[in-house]
Amino acid sequence: GVEDREEWDAVVVGGGPGGSTLGALLAMQGHRVLILEKETFPRYQIGESLLPSTVHGVCKLTGVADELEKAGFTLKRGGTLRWGANPEPWTFSFAVSPKIASATSFAYQVERSKFDKILLDHAVKKGAEVRHQVTVDDVIDDGERVRGVTYTDADGTEREAYAKFVVDASGNGSRIHKRVGGTREYSEFFRSLALFGYYEGGKRLPAPNSGNILSAAFSSGWFWYIPLSPTLTSVGAVVRREDAARIQGDPETALQSLIDECPLVKDYLSDATRVTEGQYGRLRVRKDYSYHQTKFWRPGLVLIGDAACFVDPVFSSGVHLATYSALLAARSINSVMAGLVEEEPAFDEFEARYRREYGVFYEFLMSFYDMHVDEQSYFWSAKKVTKNAHTELESFVELVAGVSSAEFALDDAESAAVRMKSKAAEFASALDTMAADEEKGMVPLFKSAAVREAMQEGGQVQSRAFLGEALGADVPLFPGGLVASGDGMHWLEPEAK
Ligand code: FAD
After folding, report:
1. H-type alpha helices, 312-412
2. ipTM strictly over 0.85?
3. pTM higher than 0.90
C-alpha cells in the first residue's frame, strides 16, 4: 500500500562519477539519497585521464580529494602531443609557468574501477544508500512530473522507489534518458570509433612529464597513451567510424596494424606486452559516443554526465562534464529542497550552465581537431571545421542558443562556423608561439580564447572549493541568472546573499 512504499528525497540511477558525486553532495545536506547501480563495484569503465577541476574543484567540495591523494594514482601534470603542424611532440602543462606551479596544477590518470569505487564509497560515507546489482527499467511518471523509478533487484524482483527527484546518471547506455523529452542528437563531426586495450612495460616520457597523457596523431586518426601505473598503460586508437566492420571482425590485427602506422606509439610499445587477463584482458570498441540530449530536465527528472551528453575522448572532458553537471544538479535540488529557489529557475540555471560548458568544450575540441594538418587523410580531412558548416553546427547552435549571448554570439550555422574557424586559428597560433619561445611557458596557450573559456568554469569551481565564503559573492553567469552560495552547495538570487 501507499503507507509502506519506498520514499526518498532523490533516487540516483547509476553510481559512476556523476551519480556518486551528486549522491554525496545531496547527502551532505542531510537529504535521503538512494543510488541504484546495475553492476557490482569495482567495475571496468573507460575515461581514465582527468582534468584538474575535477580533482581540486568538485572532489574537494565533496571531500573525497584527500582519499584520492592517498590512492597513489599517477600524477598528470599535463599532456604531450604529436599533433598540429609541428612534426615534433610538444608538451603543455596545467601550470602556467614552472616557477609558479601551484598545488592545484595537476590531475590524475586513474584506473576507473578504483576511482569510481572511491567516489561511490565516499557517497556512502556521506550518508547515501547504494544498492548494487539493481537495474532501473523505467521512471514513474504521472503526467505532471516524474515521481520515482521501477527497477529490478539482484534476485529478479521488480520494485518501485518514489522520490522528489530522479537523477539519470546511468551513462551512455541509459534506458531512461528519453523520458526527459527531446531527442539524443548524434554528432557527425566527432563521429569516430575507439579501439583500446592495455599494455605492461610501455615506455615513459622523461621526468617531469612521465605521468602526462601522450596523444599522437597519425594518418588514420590518433592514439591515446595513458600511464596508469609505472608499468601499466592504457592505449587506444580513435579512427573512422566507417572502419567498424573490419575492426570488430579482428580487433587484435586491427590494433596492431594501427600501432604499426604510428611510429611514436610503436616505439613506446616496442618492449611492451598486451595484458590478456582480468578487467584489462580484452580489446574493447566504442562508437557513437558523441551526442547531446536536446533537453536536460523536466519536473522530477534531471540528466547528468553521459546520460545527457558527451563530446569526444580528446582532451579528457568526460569525467569533468559528469562531475560538473552533478554539482550543478546538486545545487538545484539542494536549493529547491531548502525552499530557496523554485524548481523552474533552479533547473533552468542548471541547464544553462551545463549547456554552456558542453558548448565551450565542443568548440574547444573542434578547434583541437581542426588544428591538425594532414590533407591526404580521410580521417583528418573530415575534421576540418569548414567541412561541417551545416547539419552539425545547426544542432550545436540550437543547443547553445540563448545560454550566453556574449560568448556564443551566433544565431546560425554559418556564423558558428566562422567563429569556430577563427578560434581554431587563434589556438593554433598560440601553440606556434609557445613552441617558438619556451621562455613564454604556457602563457600564450592560456591566453587563447579556446583554452581560456574551457578553463574558466572549472577554475571558478576550484576557487569556490578552496576558499568557500572567503572567495566573496558569486556573480551571475547569465543576465538575470542565479549565483552559487558561498559554500558552493546551493543557488541563490544574486541579491539574497
Ligand atoms: P558512467 O561512468 O558510464 O557511469 C554510469 C553507471 O550507471 C555505470 O556504473 C553503469 O553500470 C550504471 N548503469 C547503467 N545503466 C543502469 C541502469 N539501468 N540501472 C542502474 N545503473 C545503471 N573521460 C575523461 O574524463 N577522460 C578520458 O580520458 C576519457 N576517455 C574516453 C575514451 C572513450 C573512447 C570514451 C567513449 C569516453 C571517454 N571518456 C573520458 C568519457 C568517460 O568515459 C565518461 O564521460 C564518464 O565515464 C561519464 O561518467 P558518468 O558518471 O556519466 O557515467
Report:
1. 318-337, 343-370, 378-381, 391-400
2. yes
3. yes
